[in-house]
Amino acid sequence: MGEFLSFLGSNLSDFWVNTGFANASWGNLAMLIIGCFFIYLAIKKEFEPMLLIPIGFGMLIGNMPFNLDAGLEIGIYEEGSVLNTLYQGVTSGWYPPLIFLGIGAMTDFSALISNPKLMLVGAAAQFGIFGAYMIALLIGFEPNQAAAIGIIGGADGPTAIFLSSKLAPNLLGAIAVSAYSYMALIPVLQPPIMRLLTTKKERVIRMKPPRVVSHTEKVIFPIIGLILTTLFVPSGLPLLGMLFFGNLLKESGVTRRLATTASGPLIDTITILLGVTVGASTQASQFLTWNSVFIFTLGAFSFIIATASGVLFVKIFNLFLNKNNKINPLIGNAGVSAVPNSARISQVVGREYDPTNYLLMHAMGPNVAGVIGSAVAAGILLGFLL
Asked: Are 70 and 84 in contact (CB under 8 A)?
């Protein structure tokens, strides 16, 4: 009987050592709370649920405590584990181009084609990226790390992941979560900046209706766009190539099945895998550091600079336009590449001051230009720093 009790006690002890209770830390608890908060924001507040639910649940998966010495091969950073295998799409940088393929297949570039000067608004918003890059350098981050942090200002999660996987893989988790967090918080962050930087008179500017864009123009645009952008920035080819390819699938009119697959099942599947693995990569030991605090702070500055740059650029640009061709500065916020959320914010804020003024169709111009602009900016940074 004594031997049996000893045997039972020994096995129970071994069992306890391998439970999550025995291996839990305050860091795990903190990250589990953050994960639940992300899920709450997604469900209750409807802040980017397609992103925050996978990321939030991924945080729960990645921060469930276990015995690292047991050789269970279940952690995302344990080579050979299922999560680690799925995470290769993030660390190797092939999830983001597939996301861009789906974005291209969903995006209508008509607003930009009909009013090409809106491309400048999208370009102006990229100042946030380079502004945050310089601030990060001043704080003491290495150039590669500063560039990866700065890209958060583009409000483009896939681009942030792609760039950080190349330049600062050790900061990838914090950068990815920061980028997607600020994308989700666009309805909270952008309107105050837009109101602060515009006058009531500017907010009610009515823009000319965009002209009708022909089918030929829509087909030619992705071809010319790819050639021009990648000739200048070859390092942006993985993102820009897939973006314009997806758009050609959509606009050609003869590849509807491929376009439907790219814009539906494919991008949905990759979004799930990307969100869960990025969330799981935020293990407390890797994520709860001072670097993460700095990254979230710099990401906020980057996003604020990007939004303000777009709005201020339109105000300055209007000085050189005649009265009938003025641009409403409220669409300046749409220069960040969170499609179509930032364009919707332009519409919502604009209708607060003139319920009959429809800015959405105009805001989509700089919005899609921002997608191209952030990929070009990432390519420029890669070209200089790799």
From this structure: no
Give percent above pLDDT 70 in the chain.
98
Cα→Cα distances 62→208, 279, 283, Å:
50, 7, 6
**How large is the average pLDDT for residues 14-23?**
78
Distance between CA 261 and CA 192 in Å, rounded?
38
| pTM of the full structure | 0.92
Residue 66's pLDDT is what?
A: 83
Residues with Cβ within 8 Å of 95's Cβ and at least 6 positions away in sequence, in order, are: 89, 158, 161, 270, 273, 274
Contact 334, 364 (CB under 8 A): yes
Mark 182-196 as b/e (b = at least 16 C-beta within 10 Å).
Answer: bbbbbbebbbebbbe
Phi-psi region of 93 (alpha: psi -120 to 50; beta: other; left: phi over 0): left
Question: Quick one: which of 345, 61, 384 has its CA closest to 203?
Answer: 345
**Amino acid letter for position 127:** F
How many Cα neighbours within 13 Å face the side chain of 134?
Answer: 5
